[in-house]
Amino acid sequence: MIDYNKIQVEISLDNLAANVRRFQGVCGTVIPVIKSDAYGHGLAEVTRTLAAEGATTLAVGYVNEAVKLRCLGWTGRILALLGPVDEADAAALWEHDILAAIANMDQLSRVAGAARTRGRLDICLKFDTGMRRLGFRPEGLAALVDALRANPALVPVMASTHLASADVPEHEANVTMQAGRFQSVLDGLEQAGYQVEANIANSAGAMAHKACRMDSMRLGIAMYGGNPFHGTSWEERGQGLLPTMQVSAPVLHVHTLRQGEGVSYGWTHVAGRDCEVAVVGVGYADNYSRSLSSRGFMNIKGYRVPILGRVCMQMTVVDVTGLMGEGLAGELGDGPGVRPGDQAWLLGGPAPGTITPEDLAGWWGTIPYEAFCLLGMNPRSYGK
Ligand SMILES: *Cc1c(COP(=O)(O)O)cnc(C)c1O
């Protein structure tokens, strides 16, 4: 966690709970995905909220995240999506009662070896139906079933696969193809005598593809208020989710930039006219990307203010002329004015200038997932 700045990340657990509730009952069991410190929202706090909302299974990435979740006191089921990567991970599955995804024969032999001394272990079989990242290929099902039969202590209770492009309307046929391959795997498992809980959907899959809802779904970005369909023809399918993260930094200094003066490193921005600028105490050391230089906006008192020139390590300059009226810095005109100590919002903030995760990610050249994970490493507080 970053602890050397004055940034405030405000998390709304009420909004997170409301987003989860939208999915409960609509489709099978919701498995909230809280990998990577709950997408930067805080593992412990998000877990408490999800427990209160009746979640029974939570999904993380690595086994060590699962161990941490167990040590926080979570007694429900934990799914480790990445499975064990070493012997310590494998041992932890028994020690902390973790359901791990097993995605290849090496992982299977590792847990089979440990099962000889430790006994029964429930596992989740992960299949690669098109993502080409992790998982057993459907063609290898017969060999997998043989390996399972040879190791009866390993009990498959879940089967998963991951969609490559559930958020892309033009790729609807790919989703259907992946779902079809997964269904044939499930049929094969059933014929072999294995009854499993099946899940394929991430947020986009659950929202856009009803057939993908199955027994359970792994809900990530939608729970954190991100619209997976932003900028596509399906945009409205992801509307109405509530924002869960806002981020602000303090204004440090306000002054006049004269016409013709350059500002910040390299003078990449030169003032075309006299303007009022505010120096905000946030930079790339706070995970506020330098790629926002002369591209992004902040929100001060509901006004969108553009970033001028380069984002520095701990500072960024914005044009606040629109808030200052006609006067120079400090002599306020019609606008609300800006003073050192005022809050500049990098994400969220008051209307009408509220910055959505999609706005910020767009200027940044990334997706809301990355903006949440990175900005969430700053000091957080929790509220309504
Ligand atoms: C992260 C992740 C999810 C959640 O995806 P969202 O797009 O955030 O809903 C689901 N399944 C797997 C395997 C993941 O790694």
Short description:
With 384 residues, the chain is of the alpha/beta class. The protein has helices at residues 13-23, 35-40, 43-52, 63-71, 87-95, 105-118, 141-150, 172-191, 203-208, 321-324, 357-364, 368-375, and strands at residues 8-12, 29-32, 57-62, 77-83, 99-102, 121-127, 154-161, 197-199, 216-219, 245-257, 262-263, 269-270, 275-280, 297-300, 303-306, 316-319, 343-347, 380-383. The strands form five sheets. Strands 1, 10, 13, 16, 17 and 18 form a six-stranded mixed sheet that branches. It has a six-stranded parallel sheet with strand order 3-4-5-6-7-8. A two-stranded parallel sheet has the order 2-9.
Strand and helix layout:
Layout: E1 8-12, H1 13-23, E2 29-32, H2 35-40, H3 43-52, E3 57-62, H4 63-71, E4 77-83, H5 87-95, E5 99-102, H6 105-118, E6 121-127, H7 141-150, E7 154-161, H8 172-191, E8 197-199, H9 203-208, E9 216-219, E10 245-257, E11 262-263, E12 269-270, E13 275-280, E14 297-300, E15 303-306, E16 316-319, H10 321-324, E17 343-347, H11 357-364, H12 368-375, E18 380-383
Parallel strand pairs: 1-18, 2-9, 3-4, 4-5, 5-6, 6-7, 7-8
Antiparallel strand pairs: 1-10, 10-13, 10-17, 11-12, 13-16, 14-15
